[in-house]
């Protein structure tokens, strides 16, 4: 059996499905850009008692109030990633995606109309976060399961493109609202309501999308699975490429189903720890998520206007415009990563290159902040510090901003993919909550430069750990990922799959027999 890639990109229907599901990245992206910036709008500060003059004798209390409002959505997302673990298998990827959109939208509406009620705002942030976190699991999982092996990085990477498009747009929307709107409730309500429009449109279009062929086969809906695969590839069900791809999906699913009946998620998790091959994959993804967040990760994105001010920029408007430019840089390089680098250079090289750029940016900024922060006669050094923020954005975009999403969905077999990926995304969200919550405190208690030193040490550690432990998965079919994790862990950096061009005659006979028995 040959592993081939159909020309899915020529199929408008497949492009529509990918675009609709990739909109699941909008809630997370806009929260990091649009919502986090809206907290600084005069109208929002007035409504939720964030005016500095009201807290003259309790600066810590003001900082904690801001941090809670910003970070509670992330806390809810961590639990959402765990809750959707069961829903993905019980309801299916598509229904879970729709349900997550509804939960997020209802939470967003509560945030918009909280009208100064601090407790209601925090509850709505957590509630909306449940949906946003669920989408970070379900959307990449869906995209991975419908993508051909050779273009899997492109397909899943589009999720990050949508996420970062709305992250960048959020800063500019805030700038426009700040300049052109009166400081009333309508100012921040309009800003916070913007993502409801594209997500609402995507929700409606989702009723044109099929469930993933892999999930349909797992539920023994073979005809529906074959039809869905043919529609996604723009071919007929008897096309040789469709037959070959469906047989490989069917073969893996039958092997998974043999021992999966009535198996709980807890049992599957224990299997990830008792099976040496699975255990290596599980802890590698967990390590990637840990390194990704503690290099500064999304904490820098949430507070990038403040960091630009530390680097020497002027007022709020200038910082917002620069933050928008920061978002655009992330978007452009994520697109380059998605459309070229990830399937040309591979996941491993992109991750290590990205960490290297982050490390250099953190080292310079840390030195600058420690030696001559904000000096009027040091304009060139200040400009370089601003440039370092953008260099960091490039490294983050081509590396650990996107790779863990793809890596976590592609290296696990179908049997444990949902459990393992959901756990990794829950950890991602818990770490992001911790980073977003403590970053303001780190900048104060560590005199700014100490925070950059901490992030640089994590980047350096990541280069060593992932440089040894992380195998390349570019072009490797999901069904062959186990080959990369055979042998000692320290040989992962040079791992290659065994010849996947053929399968045993016995396996082919089983496939044909099973297919005949179902009348396919």
Description:
The protein is mainly α. The protein folds into two domains: 7-236, Growth Hormone, Chain: A (Up-down Bundle), CATH 1.20.1250.20; 260-499, MFS general substrate transporter like domains (Growth Hormone, Chain: A, Up-down Bundle), CATH 1.20.1250.20. It contains 23 helices and no strands. The protein has helices at residues 12-22, 26-38, 42-47, 59-90, 93-112, 118-146, 152-180, 185-193, 196-205, 213-218, 222-233, 240-258, 265-274, 276-294, 297-302, 304-310, 316-344, 347-371, 379-398, 403-410, 414-445, 449-469, 505-517. The chain is globular. The model is unreliable at 1-9 and 500-520 (pLDDT under 50). Residues 17-474 form the Major facilitator superfamily (MFS) profile domain. One of its GO terms (molecular function) is carbohydrate:proton symporter activity. Keywords: Membrane, Signal, Transmembrane, Transmembrane helix, Transport.
Layout: helices, strands, pairs:
Blueprint: H1 12-22, H2 26-38, H3 42-47, H4 59-90, H5 93-112, H6 118-146, H7 152-180, H8 185-193, H9 196-205, H10 213-218, H11 222-233, H12 240-258, H13 265-274, H14 276-294, H15 297-302, H16 304-310, H17 316-344, H18 347-371, H19 379-398, H20 403-410, H21 414-445, H22 449-469, H23 505-517
Question: Which tags fit this structure?
Answer:
2 domains, Sugar/inositol_transpt, about 525 residues, transmembrane helix, mainly alpha, membrane, disordered C terminus, MFS_dom, Growth Hormone, Chain: A
